Amino acid sequence: MIDGQNKTYYVTSLWLKSDIELKNFVLYAIPTQESDVSVISIGNDLHTNKYNRSTEAQEAFVASQTYPGIQNIVLDNIIIDGNRALQPALEVRDGGKHGISIKGFSNNITIKNVTARNCVTDGIALYRGLHTTLDRGVEVFAIRNIRIDNFQAFNNRRHGGSGDSIENFRCTNSRFENNGLDVWGKFSGAKPAVFNGNVYGNGWIMEGYGLGSGIRNIIFDQCSFISNAASGLLFYDVANSSDRNFIFRDKIKILNSTLDSGVQNPTGDFGLIFTSNIENKKNHMKLYNQVLVSNTTITGKILLRSVQNVHLLDVNIITRDETHGLLDYADNVSYLFTTNKKTIFTWEHYNGKNIQ
């Protein structure tokens, strides 16, 4: 166990190996012109600058390139400040400057009592990596057994959190708020991330890049995803579900949580989104399967596209719109109230079946 004794350290990147516990640190990012420099790095998939070409980074590249990857890491009682107001944003790839970056194969990582704020890109990013074989049509999970508790992600330039290629993920008692917005500062890092001229930072995004980006057994419990630029929670994948190697993105639970549609959402008034791309939504095989949302308040609507077997249990949807959500090629959607509050949900829906 490495104990920082609650002292403040100014760093570029800390490269972690297997079997490490990092505890009681305050970490500030040193401003740099380079992209792809995250404060805490577990795994590496690039050799683009002096930081990710270092000896430690090279070791992380090799260790995370194949299964089982980097394992058995605990981060506890750590504050990470990405110092974005003093950093250039480097718009290419949004800079790749996260608070915590997990790339490639990894297993059994615990993150608790951690704050990631003011990062140039995301507070935390879990990514299958450019250096693995997962972009070659293989549906394998790179990142397994992730436990996050009491994690605070706020004022980050893009998303509070992001991820893909994950199996067995549980995030509890955490906040993803005020991400994707301006902060005061003269450098471009103070400005929010934009795409096609629009801000788009979400509380958390599970963004898939096709086969190899699957997610399974995902739980968010007692979490807050509010006051971000865009949606509280967004699940999106470009995978073609007609591919013979495709596996469902499934067993997803959102429990006892609070979401909203953000403050400048370019997609409209949607607080919770599950969606394929438009080209694949008509596939016979749905993209997402077995979704449970329970005891959760959503200020804004729900968007379900290419989803099946969705159950809403004691869900409160607050919207000024005439409908509570958009269902587009969504099947087997139901809801139930066990309390005195009874609401009849109305949907705008297309090409779905078994819609309550």
Automatic annotation (TrEMBL):
Kindly give the InterPro entries that the UniProt entry links to this protein: PbH1 (IPR006626), Pectin_lyas_fold (IPR012334), Pectin_lyase_fold/virulence (IPR011050)
Which SUPFAM superfamilies does this UniProt record tie to the protein? Answer: Pectin lyase-like
> Any idea what this protein is called?
Right-handed parallel beta-helix repeat-containing protein
Q: What is the lineage of its organism?
A: Bacteria, Pseudomonadati, Bacteroidota, Flavobacteriia, Flavobacteriales
